[in-house]
Design a protein that fits this description.
This protein has ten helices and ten strands. By secondary structure, the chain is an alpha/beta fold. The strands form two sheets. Strands 6-7-8-3-9-10 form a six-stranded mixed beta sheet, sandwiched between helices. A hairpin with a 2-residue loop joins strand 4 and strand 5. Helix 3 packs parallel to helix 6. The longest helix is centred in the last third of the chain and has 18 residues. Keywords: Amino-acid transport, ATP-binding, Nucleotide-binding, Transport.
């Protein structure tokens, strides 16, 4: 299951957020997209998941063109999007939020919703302890865990993670990233990880794509990008 982005451009009026981007995210690997604020990272994920309409280009998942499909159809094809900002429904309980993840499951996976829910509680035991608690009363780290758990209930083959470390304590970030890494290595889940925290992202990823002002500046193995001091200094500020 490979994600192929080819000459993708997304514009908002006169602003080009994603500018002729091409790269491939391989199956069962973590591909990270890094860059400063305004690089186009979130716009890229929103375009892949069908929330934004591109001006041109192609997005193929397992050979299937995603452009033109509705977001729910893309979810049914095995692509789940976890947006930035620990996005959960505050007025619903933890259990109700997780159940929402089953709304757009692929037909063959509808029967095992209970099993999938059990699995995410095992991944994030803290959520099981708070099953009846309103999501709006959770800590930032718990809300991020819940957002990821809700996406995993859909049984995705590709998960789009947008800034999971945003606003969280380093220890919580480490736990969440370790869980995602473990899922990828043990289950074959493919991950497209968008991060401003390049050190964290490159430390766990297989491949790194560096964006600047909507363009791909570098597309290399993550270890190589992490070791390139000149590139880091020029585009990431460290």
């Amino acid at each position: 299951m490979t994600l192929e982005i080819s000459h993708l451009t997304t514009q908002f009026g006169s602003v080009t957020a994603v500018d002729d981007i091409s790269f491939t995210a391989k199956a069962s690997e973590i591909t990270t997209v890094i860059g400063a604020n305004g690089a186009g990272k979130s716009s890229l994920l929103r375009t892949i998941s069908g929330l934004e309409k591109p001006s041109s280009g192609s997005i193929k998942w397992n050979g299937r063109e995603l452009i033109g499909l509705k977001p729910e159809a893309i979810v049914r094809l095995g692509v789940a999007h976890v947006p930035e900002g620990h996005a959960v429904i505050s007025e619903l309980t933890v259990a109700e939020n997780i159940a929402m993840g089953g709304l757009f499951r692929r037909r063959k996976n509808r029967a095992d919703l209970e099993s999938a829910s059990k699995e995410v509680y095992e991944l994030f035991p803290r959520l099981e302890e708070r099953r009846k608690q309103l999501a709006g009363t959770l800590s930032g780290g718990e809300r991020q865990m819940l957002a990821i758990a809700r996406a995993l209930v859909a049984r995705p083959q590709l998960i789009l993670l947008d800034e999971p470390s945003l606003g969280l304590a380093p220890l919580v970030v480490e736990q969440i990233i370790a869980t995602v890494n473990d899922l990828c290595r043990k289950t074959g889940l493919s991950v497209l990880l968008v991060e401003q925290n390049a050190i964290t992202a490159l430390g766990v990823a297989d491949q790194g794509v560096l964006l600047s002002l909507g363009k791909v500046v570098a597309d290399r193995p993550a270890k190589e990008l992490r070791a390139d001091a000149t590139l880091r200094a020029a585009y990431l500020g460290y």
